[in-house]
Design goal:
The structure holds two protein chains of two kinds. Chain A is an alpha/beta fold. Helices cover 38% and strands 22% of the residues of chain A. Chain A has 17 helices and 15 strands. Chain B has one domain: MetI-like (MetI-like fold, Orthogonal Bundle). In chain B, helix 5 packs antiparallel against helix 6, helix 5 runs antiparallel to helix 10 and helix 8 packs antiparallel against helix 10. Chain B is globular, with a radius of gyration of 22 Å. The chains are: A alpha/beta, B mainly alpha. The complex binds adenosine-5'-diphosphate and magnesium ion.
């Protein structure tokens, strides 16, 4: 959980200007000009402009923005891979912009772990040695660092791959090595610059899920860069949105979606396919006909006819979803002459159900296999509602269908 | 009438001579020291190659051809080459040449690797070195013999001095290129985990630049071989001397034999040093667990 009393990173009036003789842009006549104007007049590129942020201990903090908005500049400034031009970055109360190189080296070793977009692994070292590399830098002995590396590799699901070279692994697995290397140091702060952007969607989703699970155990402070709104909403406790090197909005995923600060954020929210943002719960509707499994076919059929429907969703006493049954099948049961006191399980058709937090995007794969509207159930399989394929389709076309 | 006016004679030669004299007087100790080192190194290798029995050397070269260059056939071919050199009666001369080449290359590496690293680390150093290296590589090789002669007189030492100077540019250049083209994220990763400059150099940059550096070493070696041959003009014993003598006496057959011997050695040295730069197909798994 986020410890509200404890701020870990405080960024004040932070500027980064790329180019020569960068201090001159702080002159009165330049400082208020736009990034383009400054670039045209001086040749300097404003990477970050007057950024103020506070990141709390244990927070999963997202930096989001379009390409070139300064996300990488900011996250790299936190570990001083980028030398900032003005302002301060206090981490645990110490201003890293004022540290000497040697102090900074020590500070990196004890405070940070970092994961890179294209992994940044060392191809001439085995997976084990890569995972242990951060510890090696710190001067941890061979035995101890390998022990730790084995542990973290197991954590990220790479047990058995220790002796392989990174290049013989898939992208997803290489990034697991990258993550293992960062975790091996047991850092207070984990920095991740678009770690999953290079992975294909399925693997990316999986890695996100695992990261969420990992974070629930580790409770690290994570600063995570992405340009993918879906990823931001899924992972973040809070999101800072950047544009042209400036922070436009900071808020929880809820805030960002419901109260976008300006048109830029609005566009961002809309640019992302609603299917990737909205969940099943937002488009599900009530069940028209519930068939109670403990009742006889006759009652069920009467209920169904009353609603002019050809099928019903079968539940047990606990409202647990069992499947669907058609009017035709009920009729057949009645015609068979046998006396049924309850609906026989052989007559119940099993269909796939989904949870309410499933993204609409994921319903596309379920819908075609389902001749009926998709049932939505909670974690105890209790029936909550249903979603018809028409609703799915409507939801993505009505919310402005200009997806990526 | 069309003669260039003598009035405008530029006496550069005189100034150069003066500068050389000055260097020789005031830096005598320095050049003595350099000469001493060079001589020690080359004698070490000469003694080694002439001490080890010829068939052992042939077997070693054959083994290198087989294991490093690729096939048993190559290994056998190399052994045949060396046998032929022996049959020509040039074994000792060939070993002297080899000693000169190897010691020149070692000295070139001692000088060139650090310079390449400096060049990779500093853009200013690169701006300064680059034109110098370009100029060095366009200069005809025997030009280097002149200062070498002046500093060290005749013999092995000046020849090697000239060889090292002539052959060093590729290793500097390719060390620089190799380090500069190392994947940025690998370097940044090391930095982010708190690596010092030295750790970055030895853990990341040099290992990843290795293929490029090896190409540099291969080129340096080949240049050293060609220069060693030319170096015989100022008295370095070896196969080059033999060619020189043959030319002087217009003994075509003798020159041919010596020439072929040089070609054989060139092929062997090239293939072996080249094999270091080619990435061998990496085994999926490391054979041993490092624990
Ligand atoms: N090394 C650099 N030199 C000059 N400009 C840079 C450099 N790195 C980034 N920039 C500029 O700074 C701005 C922010 O870049 P970056 O932080 O990489 O954005 P993002 O990670 O959000 O795509 C861009 O306009 C980019 O062109
Ligand atoms: Mg970036």
């Amino acid at each position: 959980m986020i410890d509200d009393t404890n701020t870990q990173i405080v960024i004040k009036d932070l500027w980064k200007v790329y180019g020569k003789d960068t201090k001159r842009i702080f002159q009165k006549n330049l400082i208020n000009k736009s990034k383009e104007e400054i670039q045209n007049e001086t040749g300097c590129i404003v990477g970050m402009r007057d950024i103020n942020l506070e990141i709390k201990k244990g927070e999963f903090y997202i930096l989001m923005g379009l390409s070139g908005s300064g996300k990488s500049t900011l996250i790299r400034a936190l570990i001083r891979l980028v030398k900032t031009t003005k302002g301060s970055i206090e981490i645990n109360g110490e201003d890293i912009t004022k540290m000497s190189s040697d102090q900074m080296i020590q500070f990196r070793r004890k405070t940070f772990g970092m994961v890179f977009q294209s992994y940044g692994l060392l191809p001439h070292m085995s997976v084990l040695d890569n995972a242990a590399y951060g510890l090696k830098i710190r001067g941890v002995g061979k035995e101890e660092r390998y022990k730790k590396a084995h542990e973290v590799l197991e954590t990220v699901g790479l047990k058995g791959w220790e002796d392989y070279f990174p290049t013989s692994l898939s992208g997803g697995m290489q990034q697991r090595v990258g993550l293992a290397r960062a975790l091996a140091n047991d850092p207070e702060i984990l920095l991740m610059d678009e770690p999953f952007s290079g992975l294909d969607p399925l693997i990316r989703r999986q890695m996100q899920d695992e990261l969420v699970e990992l974070q629930s155990k580790l409770q690290k402070t994570i600063v995570f860069v992405t340009h993918d709104l879906h990823e931001a909403l899924k992972l973040g406790d809070r999101i800072a949105i950047l544009r042209n090197g400036e922070v436009v909005q900071v808020g929880t995923p809820e805030d960002i979606i419901t109260h976008p600060a300006d048109d830029y954020v609005q566009d961002f929210v809309q640019d992302a396919s609603p299917a990737k943002v909205l969940t099943a719960s937002s488009i599900m509707s009530d069940i028209p006909v519930i068939t109670y499994a403990w009742e006889g076919p006759k009652t069920a059929l009467t209920l169904m006819r009353g609603q002019k429907k050809r099928m019903g969703y079968v539940v047990d006493q606990n409202r647990k979803f069992l499947g669907v049954i058609t009017a035709k099948e009920l009729q057949r049961l009645l015609d068979s002459g046998e006396k049924y006191k309850s609906i026989p399980s052989s007559s119940i058709e099993l269909v796939e159900s989904v949870h309410p937090d499933v993204l609409i995007e994921d319903l596309f794969s379920v819908a075609p296999q389902n001749p009926y509207p998709i049932p939505v159930v909670d974690e105890n399989d209790r029936l909550l509602g249903r979603i018809s394929s028409d609703t799915i389709f409507d939801s993505i076309s009505s919310n402005g269908g200009n997806n990526e | 009438m069309n003669k260039f006016p003598e009035l405008f004679n530029l006496p550069l030669a005189k100034y150069v001579d003066k500068a050389m004299d000055w260097l020789l007087i005031h830096w005598e100790g320095f050049f003595d020291f350099i000469g001493f080192i060079i001589l020690k190194v080359v004698l070490l290798f000469e003694d080694l190659f002439l001490f080890v029995p010829w068939f052992v050397i042939i077997l070693l070269i054959g083994y290198a051809g087989w294991k490093l260059v690729g096939s048993l056939k190559t290994g056998i071919l190399f052994m045949v080459f060396m046998m032929i050199i022996g049959l020509f009666g040039y074994w000792d001369l060939a070993m002297q040449t080899l000693a000169l080449v190897i010691s020149s290359v070692i000295l070139a590496l001692v000088v060139g690797l650090p310079l390449g690293i400096v060049m990779a680390r500093s853009d200013r150093a690169e701006r300064i070195f680059k034109p110098a290296l370009d100029a060095m590589q366009t200069m005809p090789s025997f030009v280097y013999l002149i200062p070498a002669l002046m500093f060290f007189g005749m013999g092995k030492v000046p020849s090697m001095f000239a060889t090292v100077i002539y052959a060093v540019p590729p290793v500097i250049r390719l060390t620089n290129v190799g380090i500069r083209t190392v994947d940025v994220e690998s370097v940044e990763a090391a930095k982010a985990f708190g690596a010092t400059k030295k750790q970055i150099l030895f853990d990341v940059q040099l290992p990843l630049a290795k293929p490029s550096i090896m190409v540099g070493i291969n080129q340096t070696t080949m240049m050293a071989l060609s220069m060693v041959v030319i170096g015989s003009m100022i008295g370095a014993k070896g196969l080059g001397m033999e060619v020189l003598l043959a030319i002087g006496r217009i003994e075509v057959g003798r020159g041919f034999e010596a020439g072929i011997s040089i070609v054989f050695m060139a092929v062997i040295i090239d293939r072996i040093t080249h094999s270091f730069s080619v990435k061998k197909p990496k085994k999926q798994k490391k054979n041993e667990v490092t624990e």
